[in-house]
Amino acid sequence: MHSFGYRANALLTYALTILALMCTIASLSDNFNFPSPSAEIQVLNFNWFQKQPDGNDEVSFTMNITADLQSLFTWNTKQLFIFVAAEYETPQNSLNQVSLWDAIIPAKEHAKFWFQIANKYRFTDQGSNLRGKEFNLTLHWHVMPKTGKMLADKLVMSGFRLPEEYR
Amino acid sequence: MGWIGDTVDSVKSIQIRQLLTQAVSLGMIVTSALIIWKALMCITGSESPVVVVLSGSMEPGFKRGDILFLHMSKDPIRTGEIVVFNVDGREIPIVHRVIKVHERQDTGEVDVLTKGDNNYGDDRLLYAQGQLWLQRHHIMGRAVGFLPYVGWVTIIMTEKPIIKYILIGALGLLVITSKD
To answer: Which interval of the chain is the signal sequence (chain A) (predicted)?
Structure first.
């Protein structure tokens, strides 16, 4: 009954149970954080806007991203994955989401930032519907925890419009 | 060591009745593990509710050996979600993030493009020859939960099968020699 193996087994089981419980509590504690992130995006300049040889419209622009995401960090946060996506509707597609830029924020100190960048990924349509198209720019964030449940949310900024002509 | 002597003694003293009880209890352990796995499959709606991260393509978010919990709901797929997908002609499922979504107006079908956070380019090179987009049926689930390091157990066991056999042998011996 009280052999070495029995005791080792009991100790291991107990240690693993406590560890699992602590991971669960750490993940649940994220629910008590009520973040108030803020962000603003401005489109500064359309660098170029063309119809590609395959018939798809492609555009490149420079934008200004200002954000304060510090309140998203808790003690269970490993990092923040953020990205800006353009979202629009076309006659063919009810929803197009195109990721334009992303970044990883490793710590709270870096979560208040200002960037001026051109789109990192190609903004290409499926087809040729982008001239004069209205679109949203959405800042998404994905909170990646040290352990437990992953959280995601976004801020939508609407009212952007692409140029009427290719350039 | 008296412990080993005891073990040998208890192996010798096995009777048929005891043997049967132990076979039954071992069967119970195996079947309950199977029940839990299948129940998880039903609850999460994914054919593999838990996956182990095998590559570093999502670092620093997910490292090799971390475990992801999957969920497959009817919800539409959106950018930013981390999905697990199977590409035709590839055995091992891939865990990457969705960066582009095009959803059809009439049929509701989706075209999805993915990318690993740590990779320079998107995943078109990983897809089948000439494939530009993933469709819904390629996607096995989306990651909802995360547990670090635990997956190392399975990685070690698949890469060093000896350890697996030693472990199974030791556990089997423990079951046989346990007195109640």
So the answer is: 1-26
